[in-house]
Design a protein that fits this description.
alpha+beta; two-stranded antiparallel ribbon
């Protein structure tokens, strides 16, 4: 070849290289902009037999982001054949495994398939934190749904909580736990499920140092304390918790702890408050049955009626009925009322049980705040008591109304301390009171 021909060939090769570099840069710019179809076209042009790993994994990436998972899987398989040790190729293979195998396994609650796919992801790119975190939490999710607590605990061993973020995230407009909080939640739930109480207590202590007041962590620590012989501390923990958060299952736990301590009166009151709190009745059927047992143990009225309600709920759901429950209900007169009517009657009983031993006061409504769901009542001793409007009978919702009410412990979030509030507020005649201007003090005990 003469000198002129060699020069022309070199010029063509230089032009080809410049074209490759230009197309690669354009493809990467489009990929980063989310224009995966256009980026894919450019990368596929470059994906010849001489293409390196940077082009091949980008082809698979674009296919994955376009939802063409089977094609993405085939593309990454070709890349792995040639560049098995390339970290970017392996990382993309891990994410394709997530889309193709792990997500469907999670949706189907197939624990074996989920664990296999999660392991595959970590084998491919387990040193990449986001891949490892996604694989582990997906496996935990399925293990929890299958109530396989051994697997839950085993999978939490795959992550160091101190490396996880403490930032909460927004998903579909709702705030979810941070990854570190999720880890503690899963670890504690697994340990409690396995009844590994000493470990559960230690993990709960660490969790509460980082997430103070988290209700599930407080509850699980209380359960661990009770099992470790610290029943009094467990009850104190739960008592403080339910004074600021009144979820029915928290009150259910408190009721059970009181019963274990032999205080059936406190157990009945907590159970009644739980049953009056928001929540599906069928979810509370075990608590209704326990309440029937506690009433029966002290020879109090209503045990058979509570047992009958529990039976009717179980029958309505197609669940079996324990013999012990049938025996408890044997003393009830034949009752053909519908389940809804039985529940309404039981609710009246729960109200009376919830107020056993409660302090009843009289006073006068002295302040209602426009646009706010609360106000204040001045009691007979001149003290100002906080009240939620929803706890007031309609005729009481006016300044100057003379009322009777029940004092209940509460938690003042603004002042971060325990206090009192008025509940079961109803109108009475003739109760005296001082003027609104005289009510300076707040009842905080």
């Amino acid at each position: 070849m003469d000198i002129q021909g060699a020069a022309m060939n070199e010029q063509e090769r230089r032009g080809d290289r410049e074209s490759v570099v230009s197309r690669y840069a354009s493809g990467e710019s489009l990929r980063r902009a989310g224009q995966y179809d256009k980026a894919l076209a450019l990368f596929q042009e470059l994906a010849d037999d001489e293409a390196g790993p940077d082009v091949l994994w980008r082809v698979a990436y674009c296919l994955r982001r376009l939802g063409r998972i089977e094609e993405a899987d085939q593309a990454i398989a070709r890349a792995l054949e040639k560049f098995d040790s390339d970290p970017w190729v392996r990382r993309e293979a891990a994410w394709i495994t997530y889309e193709k195998a792990l997500k469907p396994a999670v949706a189907a609650e197939d624990l074996e398939a989920a664990c296999e796919a999660a392991r595959r992801m970590m084998d491919l790119a387990g040193d990449e934190p986001l891949v490892r975190e996604r694989a582990v939490f997906c496996a935990i999710k399925v293990a929890r749904s299958r109530r396989d607590w051994d697997q839950v605990v085993a999978w939490t061993d795959e992550l160091d909580p101190e490396t996880l973020s403490t930032d909460k995230r927004e998903i579909d407009g709702r705030t979810v736990m941070s990854p570190r909080e999720q880890w503690y939640f899963a670890r504690l739930k697994g340990l409690v499920g396995l009844r590994r109480w000493d470990e559960a207590r230690q993990v709960a202590d660490r969790a509460l140092e980082q997430f103070p007041g988290r209700r599930d962590f407080v509850r699980w620590r209380a359960l661990a304390r009770a099992e470790l012989g610290e029943l009094e501390s467990a009850i104190a923990d739960m008592q403080r918790l339910v004074e600021r958060e009144r979820a029915w299952y928290l009150l259910d736990t408190l009721a059970d702890l009181h019963a274990r301590a032999g205080d059936l009166g406190a157990a009945r009151r907590a159970a009644a408050r739980a049953l009056l709190a928001p929540g599906e009745l069928k979810s509370k059927v075990a608590l209704i049955a326990r309440l029937a047992t506690w009433l029966d143990a002290e020879g109090l009225d209503g045990a058979a009626e509570q047992a009958l309600l529990a039976i009717r709920i179980r029958e309505a759901e197609g669940w079996g009925v324990p013999e012990a429950l049938i025996r408890l209900a044997a003393g009830a007169p034949e009752d053909r009322r519908a389940l809804s009517e039985l529940a309404r009657a039981a609710r009246e009983r729960w109200k009376s049980l919830a107020q056993e031993g409660a302090t009843e006061e009289t006073g006068r409504v002295v302040r209602l705040i426009d646009g706010k769901p609360f106000g204040f009542i001045e009691d007979s001793r001149g003290r100002s008591v906080f009240v939620l409007t929803r706890d007031m009978a309609p005729e009481c919702r006016r300044v100057g109304a003379h009322v009777r009410f029940v004092l209940q412990k509460s938690y003042d979030r603004k002042r971060q301390r325990e206090g009192w509030r008025a509940t079961e507020v109803r109108a009475v005649a003739g109760a005296g009171g001082r003027s609104e201007d005289d009510s300076e003090s707040r009842l905080d005990l």
